[in-house]
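Q: Give me the 3D complex with BV8.
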Amino acid sequence: MDDLQTVRGWLEQAPRLCVLTGAGMSAESGVPTFRDALTGLWARHDPQQLATEAGFRSDPQLVWDWYGSRREGVARAEPNAGHRALAAWQAAHPERLTLVTQNVDDLHQRAGSTDVICLHGALFEDRWIDPCAREVRGEPACDPARAEPGRPPRCGECGNLVRPGVVWFGEALPGRALQAAEDAASDCELMLVVGTAGAVYPAAGLPALARQAGARVVVLNPQPSELDRGAHVVLRGTAAQLLPQLLG
Ligand code: BV8
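A: Here is the predicted complex, encoded as C-alpha coordinates.
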Protein backbone atom coordinates (compact mmCIF):
# COMPACT_ATOMS: atom_id res chain seq x y z
CA MET A 1 0.00 0.00 0.00
CA ASP A 2 1.51 3.38 -0.89
CA ASP A 3 1.74 6.31 1.52
CA LEU A 4 -1.29 8.06 0.10
CA GLN A 5 -3.46 4.98 0.60
CA THR A 6 -2.06 4.55 4.11
CA VAL A 7 -2.97 8.12 5.02
CA ARG A 8 -6.42 7.76 3.45
CA GLY A 9 -6.91 4.74 5.71
CA TRP A 10 -5.81 6.73 8.76
CA LEU A 11 -8.20 9.49 7.77
CA GLU A 12 -11.17 7.09 7.65
CA GLN A 13 -10.33 5.86 11.13
CA ALA A 14 -9.74 9.30 12.68
CA PRO A 15 -12.73 10.75 14.54
CA ARG A 16 -10.87 14.09 14.83
CA LEU A 17 -8.65 15.60 12.13
CA CYS A 18 -6.53 18.71 12.68
CA VAL A 19 -5.03 20.47 9.66
CA LEU A 20 -2.26 23.07 10.07
CA THR A 21 -1.55 25.17 6.98
CA GLY A 22 1.22 27.58 6.05
CA ALA A 23 2.10 29.83 3.13
CA GLY A 24 2.56 26.88 0.75
CA MET A 25 -1.20 26.28 1.01
CA SER A 26 -1.76 29.49 -1.00
CA ALA A 27 1.20 29.15 -3.39
CA GLU A 28 -0.92 27.60 -6.17
CA SER A 29 -3.30 30.51 -5.84
CA GLY A 30 -0.43 32.77 -6.86
CA VAL A 31 0.19 34.20 -3.39
CA PRO A 32 3.99 34.34 -2.80
CA THR A 33 5.25 32.27 0.13
CA PHE A 34 7.79 33.72 2.50
CA ARG A 35 10.76 31.67 1.48
CA ASP A 36 10.43 30.93 -2.21
CA ALA A 37 13.74 32.37 -3.44
CA LEU A 38 12.30 33.85 -6.65
CA THR A 39 8.96 35.19 -5.59
CA GLY A 40 9.24 34.90 -1.81
CA LEU A 41 8.32 38.01 0.14
CA TRP A 42 11.47 37.58 2.16
CA ALA A 43 13.58 37.65 -1.01
CA ARG A 44 12.56 41.25 -1.61
CA HIS A 45 12.03 42.47 1.93
CA ASP A 46 13.30 41.42 5.33
CA PRO A 47 10.25 40.45 7.38
CA GLN A 48 12.22 40.89 10.56
CA GLN A 49 12.34 44.52 9.43
CA LEU A 50 8.87 44.83 7.96
CA ALA A 51 6.65 42.38 9.87
CA THR A 52 7.49 43.93 13.24
CA GLU A 53 6.18 46.82 15.33
CA ALA A 54 9.63 48.45 15.31
CA GLY A 55 9.75 48.18 11.52
CA PHE A 56 6.35 49.82 11.23
CA ARG A 57 7.20 52.61 13.63
CA SER A 58 10.49 53.29 11.86
CA ASP A 59 8.86 53.55 8.43
CA PRO A 60 5.05 53.36 8.60
CA GLN A 61 4.59 54.14 4.90
CA LEU A 62 6.98 51.39 3.73
CA VAL A 63 5.30 48.77 5.88
CA TRP A 64 1.77 50.01 5.09
CA ASP A 65 2.54 49.87 1.36
CA TRP A 66 4.03 46.35 1.67
CA TYR A 67 0.80 45.14 3.25
CA GLY A 68 -1.20 47.11 0.72
CA SER A 69 0.50 45.28 -2.14
CA ARG A 70 -0.09 41.94 -0.41
CA ARG A 71 -3.77 42.80 0.08
CA GLU A 72 -4.05 43.57 -3.65
CA GLY A 73 -2.36 40.26 -4.53
CA VAL A 74 -4.64 38.21 -2.28
CA ALA A 75 -7.75 40.05 -3.49
CA ARG A 76 -6.82 39.04 -7.06
CA ALA A 77 -6.13 35.43 -6.03
CA GLU A 78 -8.66 32.61 -5.94
CA PRO A 79 -8.78 29.65 -3.55
CA ASN A 80 -7.12 26.61 -5.14
CA ALA A 81 -8.17 22.96 -5.29
CA GLY A 82 -6.51 22.37 -1.93
CA HIS A 83 -8.56 25.07 -0.19
CA ARG A 84 -11.70 23.73 -1.84
CA ALA A 85 -10.96 20.12 -0.86
CA LEU A 86 -10.61 21.12 2.79
CA ALA A 87 -13.86 23.11 2.72
CA ALA A 88 -15.76 20.27 1.03
CA TRP A 89 -14.44 17.69 3.49
CA GLN A 90 -15.41 19.88 6.43
CA ALA A 91 -18.94 20.25 5.03
CA ALA A 92 -19.24 16.48 4.51
CA HIS A 93 -17.86 15.60 7.94
CA PRO A 94 -19.24 18.18 10.37
CA GLU A 95 -17.43 18.52 13.71
CA ARG A 96 -14.51 16.29 12.64
CA LEU A 97 -12.12 18.92 11.22
CA THR A 98 -10.27 21.71 13.02
CA LEU A 99 -8.45 23.94 10.53
CA VAL A 100 -5.57 25.96 11.95
CA THR A 101 -3.73 28.38 9.68
CA GLN A 102 -0.59 30.51 9.95
CA ASN A 103 -1.73 32.37 6.86
CA VAL A 104 -3.22 35.84 7.02
CA ASP A 105 -4.92 35.59 3.61
CA ASP A 106 -8.64 34.84 3.47
CA LEU A 107 -8.50 32.00 0.94
CA HIS A 108 -9.62 29.23 3.32
CA GLN A 109 -12.64 31.31 4.25
CA ARG A 110 -13.40 32.23 0.63
CA ALA A 111 -13.29 28.50 -0.25
CA GLY A 112 -16.01 27.94 2.35
CA SER A 113 -14.06 26.71 5.38
CA THR A 114 -15.66 27.84 8.64
CA ASP A 115 -14.33 28.36 12.17
CA VAL A 116 -10.79 28.73 10.82
CA ILE A 117 -8.30 29.26 13.66
CA CYS A 118 -6.13 32.16 12.46
CA LEU A 119 -2.95 32.10 14.55
CA HIS A 120 -1.36 35.15 12.95
CA GLY A 121 -4.33 37.45 12.45
CA ALA A 122 -5.95 38.66 9.25
CA LEU A 123 -4.41 40.64 6.40
CA PHE A 124 -7.60 42.60 5.67
CA GLU A 125 -8.23 43.69 9.23
CA ASP A 126 -7.08 47.09 10.51
CA ARG A 127 -6.11 48.00 14.09
CA TRP A 128 -4.66 51.03 15.84
CA ILE A 129 -0.89 50.91 16.48
CA ASP A 130 -1.44 52.50 19.93
CA PRO A 131 -4.31 52.21 22.41
CA CYS A 132 -7.12 54.58 21.38
CA ALA A 133 -7.12 57.66 23.64
CA ARG A 134 -10.92 57.58 23.87
CA GLU A 135 -10.88 53.90 24.91
CA VAL A 136 -8.27 54.71 27.56
CA ARG A 137 -10.74 57.28 28.92
CA GLY A 138 -13.42 54.57 29.03
CA GLU A 139 -15.26 55.90 25.97
CA PRO A 140 -16.04 53.87 22.82
CA ALA A 141 -12.86 53.46 20.77
CA CYS A 142 -12.48 55.25 17.45
CA ASP A 143 -13.10 53.05 14.42
CA PRO A 144 -9.93 52.50 12.31
CA ALA A 145 -12.18 52.23 9.25
CA ARG A 146 -13.10 55.89 9.78
CA ALA A 147 -9.50 57.11 10.01
CA GLU A 148 -8.25 59.91 7.76
CA PRO A 149 -7.06 58.39 4.46
CA GLY A 150 -3.28 58.07 4.17
CA ARG A 151 -0.36 55.67 3.93
CA PRO A 152 -1.03 54.62 6.68
CA PRO A 153 -4.41 56.14 7.61
CA ARG A 154 -4.39 58.04 10.91
CA CYS A 155 -6.93 59.15 13.48
CA GLY A 156 -8.18 62.66 12.72
CA GLU A 157 -8.54 63.36 16.44
CA CYS A 158 -5.26 62.14 17.99
CA GLY A 159 -3.02 61.06 15.10
CA ASN A 160 -3.02 57.36 16.06
CA LEU A 161 -1.80 55.26 13.10
CA VAL A 162 -3.70 52.37 11.55
CA ARG A 163 -1.74 49.07 11.24
CA PRO A 164 -2.71 45.73 9.67
CA GLY A 165 -4.44 43.28 12.03
CA VAL A 166 -1.71 40.64 11.74
CA VAL A 167 0.59 39.21 14.44
CA TRP A 168 4.09 40.60 13.93
CA PHE A 169 7.31 38.91 15.00
CA GLY A 170 7.82 39.51 18.69
CA GLU A 171 4.07 39.91 19.28
CA ALA A 172 2.03 37.38 21.20
CA LEU A 173 -0.41 35.25 19.25
CA PRO A 174 -4.09 35.76 20.09
CA GLY A 175 -4.52 33.74 23.30
CA ARG A 176 -7.84 32.13 22.41
CA ALA A 177 -6.67 31.10 18.95
CA LEU A 178 -3.44 29.58 20.23
CA GLN A 179 -5.26 27.72 23.00
CA ALA A 180 -7.83 26.37 20.53
CA ALA A 181 -5.04 25.26 18.20
CA GLU A 182 -3.17 23.54 21.02
CA ASP A 183 -6.36 21.80 22.16
CA ALA A 184 -7.07 20.59 18.61
CA ALA A 185 -3.48 19.34 18.21
CA SER A 186 -3.66 17.49 21.53
CA ASP A 187 -7.09 15.96 20.88
CA CYS A 188 -6.85 14.84 17.26
CA GLU A 189 -6.05 11.34 16.00
CA LEU A 190 -4.55 12.67 12.76
CA MET A 191 -2.79 15.93 11.90
CA LEU A 192 -2.07 17.03 8.33
CA VAL A 193 0.65 19.69 8.10
CA VAL A 194 0.32 21.43 4.75
CA GLY A 195 2.69 23.91 3.12
CA THR A 196 4.80 25.10 6.00
CA ALA A 197 8.56 25.20 6.52
CA GLY A 198 7.98 24.81 10.25
CA ALA A 199 10.32 27.65 11.15
CA VAL A 200 8.02 30.05 12.99
CA TYR A 201 7.00 29.40 16.58
CA PRO A 202 4.87 28.72 18.50
CA ALA A 203 2.83 27.51 15.46
CA ALA A 204 5.62 25.17 14.38
CA GLY A 205 5.41 23.42 17.74
CA LEU A 206 1.88 22.13 17.09
CA PRO A 207 2.85 18.97 15.14
CA ALA A 208 5.14 17.81 17.96
CA LEU A 209 2.30 18.47 20.43
CA ALA A 210 -0.02 16.30 18.34
CA ARG A 211 2.52 13.51 18.07
CA GLN A 212 3.24 13.59 21.81
CA ALA A 213 -0.50 13.26 22.43
CA GLY A 214 -0.63 10.13 20.26
CA ALA A 215 -1.77 11.52 16.92
CA ARG A 216 -0.38 10.43 13.59
CA VAL A 217 1.33 13.36 11.86
CA VAL A 218 1.52 13.66 8.07
CA VAL A 219 3.48 16.38 6.28
CA LEU A 220 2.38 17.52 2.80
CA ASN A 221 5.13 19.55 1.14
CA PRO A 222 6.97 19.43 -2.21
CA GLN A 223 10.22 20.27 -0.40
CA PRO A 224 11.91 18.97 2.76
CA SER A 225 10.89 20.91 5.88
CA GLU A 226 11.91 21.13 9.52
CA LEU A 227 8.78 19.14 10.37
CA ASP A 228 9.61 16.09 8.25
CA ARG A 229 11.64 14.47 11.03
CA GLY A 230 8.69 14.46 13.39
CA ALA A 231 6.20 13.11 10.85
CA HIS A 232 5.01 9.51 10.55
CA VAL A 233 4.58 10.02 6.80
CA VAL A 234 5.82 12.74 4.43
CA LEU A 235 3.86 13.16 1.19
CA ARG A 236 6.03 14.93 -1.39
CA GLY A 237 3.63 17.03 -3.38
CA THR A 238 1.68 20.26 -3.44
CA ALA A 239 -1.45 21.25 -1.56
CA ALA A 240 -3.60 21.51 -4.68
CA GLN A 241 -2.41 18.08 -5.89
CA LEU A 242 -2.46 16.08 -2.64
CA LEU A 243 -5.45 17.39 -0.69
CA PRO A 244 -8.04 16.50 -3.36
CA GLN A 245 -6.44 13.01 -3.62
CA LEU A 246 -6.50 12.59 0.17
CA LEU A 247 -9.85 14.14 1.00
CA GLY A 248 -11.80 13.54 -2.20
C1 BV8 B 1 5.83 35.12 19.74
C2 BV8 B 1 1.92 37.45 10.08
C3 BV8 B 1 6.26 35.74 21.98
C4 BV8 B 1 2.66 38.66 9.58
C5 BV8 B 1 3.70 35.92 10.75
C6 BV8 B 1 10.00 29.97 20.24
C7 BV8 B 1 8.79 30.19 20.88
C8 BV8 B 1 8.08 31.37 20.68
C9 BV8 B 1 8.60 32.36 19.81
C10 BV8 B 1 9.79 32.14 19.19
C11 BV8 B 1 10.50 30.97 19.40
N1 BV8 B 1 11.63 31.04 18.66
C12 BV8 B 1 11.65 32.21 17.98
C13 BV8 B 1 10.56 32.91 18.29
C14 BV8 B 1 10.26 34.23 17.77
C15 BV8 B 1 9.44 34.17 16.49
C16 BV8 B 1 9.92 33.11 15.54
O1 BV8 B 1 9.36 32.02 15.48
N2 BV8 B 1 10.94 33.46 14.76
C17 BV8 B 1 11.44 32.57 13.74
C18 BV8 B 1 11.81 33.38 12.49
C19 BV8 B 1 12.64 31.86 14.32
N3 BV8 B 1 8.05 33.99 16.81
C20 BV8 B 1 7.32 35.09 17.06
O2 BV8 B 1 7.78 36.22 17.08
C21 BV8 B 1 5.84 34.89 17.35
N4 BV8 B 1 5.54 35.61 18.54
O3 BV8 B 1 6.10 33.98 19.95
O4 BV8 B 1 5.80 36.10 20.68
C22 BV8 B 1 5.58 36.65 22.90
C23 BV8 B 1 4.84 36.10 23.94
C24 BV8 B 1 4.24 36.96 24.83
C25 BV8 B 1 4.34 38.36 24.67
C26 BV8 B 1 5.06 38.88 23.60
C27 BV8 B 1 5.69 38.02 22.72
C28 BV8 B 1 4.99 35.50 16.25
C29 BV8 B 1 5.19 34.79 14.96
C30 BV8 B 1 4.16 35.27 13.94
C31 BV8 B 1 4.82 36.19 12.93
N5 BV8 B 1 3.84 36.55 11.89
N6 BV8 B 1 2.74 36.25 9.87
C32 BV8 B 1 2.72 38.70 8.07
O5 BV8 B 1 2.22 37.76 7.40
O6 BV8 B 1 3.28 39.69 7.55
S1 BV8 B 1 4.72 34.63 10.43
C33 BV8 B 1 4.67 34.32 8.75
O7 BV8 B 1 5.86 33.62 8.45
C34 BV8 B 1 3.57 33.39 8.33
O8 BV8 B 1 2.37 33.65 8.98
C35 BV8 B 1 4.11 32.03 8.61
O9 BV8 B 1 3.85 31.65 9.93
C36 BV8 B 1 5.60 32.25 8.48
C37 BV8 B 1 6.09 31.69 7.16
O10 BV8 B 1 6.18 30.32 7.37
P1 BV8 B 1 5.49 29.29 6.38
O11 BV8 B 1 4.03 29.42 6.43
O12 BV8 B 1 6.08 27.99 6.70
O13 BV8 B 1 5.91 29.78 4.95
P2 BV8 B 1 7.33 29.66 4.27
O14 BV8 B 1 7.34 30.56 3.08
O15 BV8 B 1 8.39 29.82 5.31
O16 BV8 B 1 7.37 28.15 3.74
C38 BV8 B 1 6.46 27.77 2.73
C39 BV8 B 1 6.46 26.27 2.73
O17 BV8 B 1 5.51 25.84 1.76
C40 BV8 B 1 7.79 25.66 2.32
O18 BV8 B 1 8.09 24.56 3.12
C41 BV8 B 1 7.53 25.20 0.87
O19 BV8 B 1 8.29 24.05 0.53
C42 BV8 B 1 6.09 24.88 0.90
N7 BV8 B 1 5.38 24.99 -0.37
C43 BV8 B 1 5.68 25.79 -1.43
N8 BV8 B 1 4.77 25.60 -2.40
C44 BV8 B 1 3.87 24.68 -1.94
C45 BV8 B 1 4.26 24.30 -0.65
N9 BV8 B 1 3.58 23.39 0.07
C46 BV8 B 1 2.48 22.86 -0.49
N10 BV8 B 1 2.02 23.19 -1.72
C47 BV8 B 1 2.69 24.09 -2.47
N11 BV8 B 1 2.26 24.41 -3.71
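A quick observation: The domain at 32-76+123-166 is CATH 3.30.1600 (SIR2/SIRT2 'Small Domain').
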